[in-house]
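Readers outside the structure-tokenisation community will struggle with the description of the input data as it stands. For illustration, here is how one protein appears when written out as sequence plus structure tokens:
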Amino acid sequence: MRFEVNSQAFSEAARRVAQHVSGHQPLAALGGMHLVAGTDSVVVRGSDLDVEVAVETPASVDEPGEAVIPAKVGRWLQMVAGEGKIKVAYDGEGMVALKAPEGEAALRTVPTKPPAMEKAEGSGYPVEAARLAAGLRRVRHAVSGGGGPMGGVLAGGAKDGLTLTATDSYRLARVHLGGKRGEADAVMPRRFCDVVEGARDVTDARIWLDRDGPLEFRGTDWFGTIGVVTRPVSGQYPNLENVLAGIPDGGVWLGTQELKEALGRLAPFAAEAWVGAEFEPEELRLVADSHQIGRSAVRIPYVEGPIRGLGGFAVDHRLLLDAVDGCGGEKLRLFHDGGPIWLADETGEGWFLVMPLRKAS
């Protein structure tokens, strides 16, 4: 195997793969990066049995071939990439020689290739990568920290476009991304979501969703074509349609940044993390009480009403702040009538639910 490749593109490809391959694997193959030189490109691939990441980047190939090198070399490549070309050579035995603009190395090969995961079938459907990455950032705060279906993000559930949903039973986040798609849906594991979030700048992105088969994401970035494959989280995701069918109208509109800043100012006084809220005629009053520090209150004027069916509540301010971050935008809608606390973004595409701790006194 012998090829020459753009140093910046190759080092970025290696970084994308290496950051998702653990350097402390019980099996040597799971700590390696598989290099495959074809006729006019090189593929850098890694897997840890849960997620497989592969990047194909253009290269000038003198001799096709393959080799597996330690994934830890990805960090070194970032330091020595410089400007220009990286030359890679391997004669099938011994060491892989790398010569970069600002350094060179002879790398020991890993004896076994990383396991290849089953790829998705069909053509998938197009997505806007930046919009998908932003949607994942907005909902993943509600992903359960445990295993099972609630340990991932549910993708699908609507004919009129891709919808992302996450819940840990205490809170819920749903963002509708739009676009054209079919009926298929699947629960995407957290680590798959990590890679997709990092690929927010790709173009020509496509995603494959299948509750029974592999999940896949592909797109093109400046350094080459990136592909991510994983298996969906198994098990039945909670049926949330009854909950979401009850999303209320009304409530009050608040400035998003004003609410975030208010929660931040109350945090030092929030004993056991809770804050109380009362809907007053022209403003929302938030209060936090600490036996050690004292009591603090903040008032946030309504951007607009109406006030209808609203009642006071107490809530973990950290969960509420996560939901506010998910809303984004300049303003959000807040509603509470004695049940869940609902927040909605100003576009109507994002809905967030937080369970109250108890009714405020």
Remarks:
- The longest helix spans residues 7-18.
